[in-house]
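User: Second chain of the day. Same drill as before.
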Amino acid sequence: MSKSPFLNSIREAMRQMGYSLRTEKTYLYWIRYYIRFNQLKHPSELGGEDVIRFLTYLANQQDVAINTQRTALNAIAFLYNKFLQQPLGELGFTYAKRSRRIPVVLNAAEVQTILQHFKTRDLVIFSLLYGSGLRITECLRLRVKDIDFERYSVTVHDGKGNKDRVTLLPRSLEGPLKSIINQSLICQKEDNSKGIGPSLPHALYKKYPNAFRQPGWMYLFPSQSLCAHPLSGEICRHHLHPSVARKALNKAKSLAGVEHKPISCHTFRHSFATQLLANGQDIRTVQELLGHSDVATTQIYTHVLGQHFAGTQSPADLLIVT
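Assistant: Same format as last time:
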């Protein structure tokens, strides 16, 4: 908890409005940064020109990415428009232009090679990233109730932009996933015997105080240690931290000898999208599976394939060589 009464009041307001803890942490970071940038002046004494000056500083002096600029602006906009009730109005700020970067992807053979060097739990995690197109945080936050073996689907709750979506569940993962679920439920049963259980979202622990005993709420990939819930302060078990997956990936790609590409957890999501498009899947379906709000975001993967539309061929390939 911050020592600043002002920041604490912002935190309380965000929780009352139902913002996720991750958004809360991000917004408070940028609001704190904004206040320090303005020599600790109270935001109510500042205005649109000060906001533009701050964003320009981030773009020009700190050279932050355009998405970082957007996040900072969203945080400041929340501060003024919703918390202080001092609407900023139209700022007229133009984001820094950045050249489009083509994402790094893996082909099927490279994915297979890396997956062979994971132990069971990490194998399932990275198979979901590649087979379902999940972000690493979305994967690690999955609960038992989010897996549907009848429809072979995965439900993602509170994804990026606080959106829910349904994506594919690889049929090949049914056996390993059921084993993972059984192990998680054994962990939950042991925790329940001590009066504790998985951490619950938002204020669900108040509305349903015994929900932590229900199998559906157990994480697929629970942390090995207990922690204090950030809202209630009660001891609970959270999901694995993303750093655990990153360490496993670094070890696996080293063993696989696939070190010629800058591979991250997100690379498997990129590879999921690219493989679907290469197989002829329409871009709107891929957009829905990835949870992109704008199809233009999904279109970047067509550039990875070297084609802007499915089935497009190079003119050279149509020549008859004699």
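The CA atoms of residues 284 and 295 lie 7 Å apart.

User: Great, on to the next one.
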